[in-house]
Amino acid sequence: MKRVSFAEFGGPDVLQLLDAEEPHAGPGQIRVAVRAAGVNPVDWRIREGQVLGAHPIELPSGVGLDASGVVDEIGEGVEGVEVGDRVFGEGSSTYAEFAVLSAWARMPEGLTFEEAAGYPSVVETALRVIREVGVRSGQTLLVSGASGGVGSAVLQIARDRGITVIGTAGAANQDYLRSLGAVPATYGEGWVERVRRLGQIDAALDLAGSGVIRELIELTGDPRKVISIADLGAPELGVRFSGVAGSVPEALAEAVGLISRGKLHIPVEKSYPLAEAAAAHIDSQAGHTRGRRVLII
Could you say which residues form the signal peptide (predicted)? Predict the structure, then answer.
């Protein structure tokens, strides 16, 4: 089979599409014939060699956590899924023709493989940071970097829970944020005052790692009311860095419910063939994403 991998840490050019042995499902796992793989910022952070304790790796390494596909192998002890089922979930080395998943759910009706690949890690992260920051119905949440995959999920999940969301993004994405139920604000010079005029901020999330931790603390008044998933220096300012996943099966189950009720939709901004994984990483690192980027296998 074909698999994207890298033998050394570095830029997108270290990614190679190579022949590899097919993986097999172990106990509690399934294998899928991959139809699409989600491209997440954590993928290129790992490729660069950033120290992410939740994702230790050995070189050479495959790439990718999220995938959608068709079940073709079921490990020992697995129940409730059959060969031929259409599923989406999280595993390892998903930029490949076959991948092993450790958490999965059946794809909701009407969802394409391309769309489904964009949900697993994104929804788990969104649910986790909303929980960790402690924001409740009737309160206001500020989301810095709101137009990407996690931001898109946060906005919709928060709205479904009765939370008001102010989202910052580039000028081109203001209407997109409105469409997801957020109060939009542009970043750039004067953004703190623009946000302050919109009302009291009860909690804040840093999803882009754009160097705004001090400003988020200023707006909330307390570093404990701020969570970052993108700035490894956040703990130096008393802000929690959230990088360890919670229960992915529970997150997938909640995602299925939200999607089925029409409360969650994350658009695919761009898809790439497997051979163009490096281009997908370049675009992901550039930011300004609206929704998700995925690889098509």
Answer: none
Residues 89, 20: Cα–Cα separation, whole Å = 22
Both tokens of 293, joined, read 């980027």
Is residue 120 within 8 A of residue 37, CB to CB? The reply is no
Q: Are residues 127 and 251 in contact, defined by beta-carbon separation less than 8 angstroms?
A: yes
Nearest C-alpha neighbor of 221 from the set 241, 202, 238, 242: 202
**pTM of the shown model:** 0.92
Question: CA–CA separation, 67 vs 117, rounded Å?
Answer: 5
Mean pLDDT of the chain: 94
- Supply 224's token pair: 């404990």
What residue type is assigned to position 218 of the chain? E
Separation between Cα atoms, residue 233 and residue 44, nearest integer Å: 18
CA separation for the pair 154, 180 (Å, rounded):
10
Q: How far is CA 168 from CA 210, 214, 240, in A?
A: 11, 16, 20
Cα distance between residue 123 and residue 131, in whole Å: 12
Query: What six digits make up the tokens of 231?
Result: 């700035």
Q: What is the pLDDT of residues 198-236, one digit of tens each?
A: 999 999 999 988 899 999 999 999 999 999 999 989 999
CA angle 211, 175, 223 (to 5 degrees): 30
